[in-house]
């Protein structure tokens, strides 16, 4: 059997390199922007309900049951920017809010760099890959461009290309996204490692021969070193 060296790394965005803020922080920021307030008990209930219906993009959704009426829209959410906004604002509208403006304000908030925090070991791992000459792609199911998030947190210099579902019109686990990333980096899929938190979506890279490494989708302060093993995998297969 021929052993190949890992020559490139593909990373998911949300839940892998970055984690979005909590539903409470998200709602508080939107209320502050619109100069609105909620009684504390109502605020707590509303933030919890927004989480329960999956209204915050990037939040963990293992617990979410999507209503039948929204299932088609949610399934298409990462195909284009319009579908992404429509899906997430529709999910949020299941929760009564004190002002109609809040649904759009909440959606806009989640795209701002302040809403995201890199996992503690992300800078170290990405910098380590760059030092070794290993090119990096971000491969994400998403409806907007996350590059400003990387720029604001100082990680954009370590990323060679961004392969985003809404720009390609397909979403992971479709192998075309992973193929596009490998092509952009100039490597064969068998020489690439896909790092992600979703075993179904990110696991699609195995179909074209990529190696896989999975991390847990946890709050950033509860996963200090989930990415660090990647450095040990580079150069081995």
Automatic annotation (TrEMBL):
Instruction: Identify a single GO molecular function assigned to this protein.
Output: hydrolase activity
Which interval of the chain is the signal sequence?
none
Q: Per its UniProt entry, which superkingdom is the organism in?
A: Bacteria
Q: Which UniProt keywords apply?
A: Hydrolase
What Pfam families would the database entry show? Hydrolase
Q: Which NCBIfam families match?
A: HAD-SF-IA-v1
Q: Which PANTHER family match?
A: HALOACID DEHALOGENASE-LIKE HYDROLASE (HAD) SUPERFAMILY PROTEIN, PTHR46649
User: How is this protein named in the record?
Assistant: HAD-IA family hydrolase
Give the source species.
Streptomyces beihaiensis
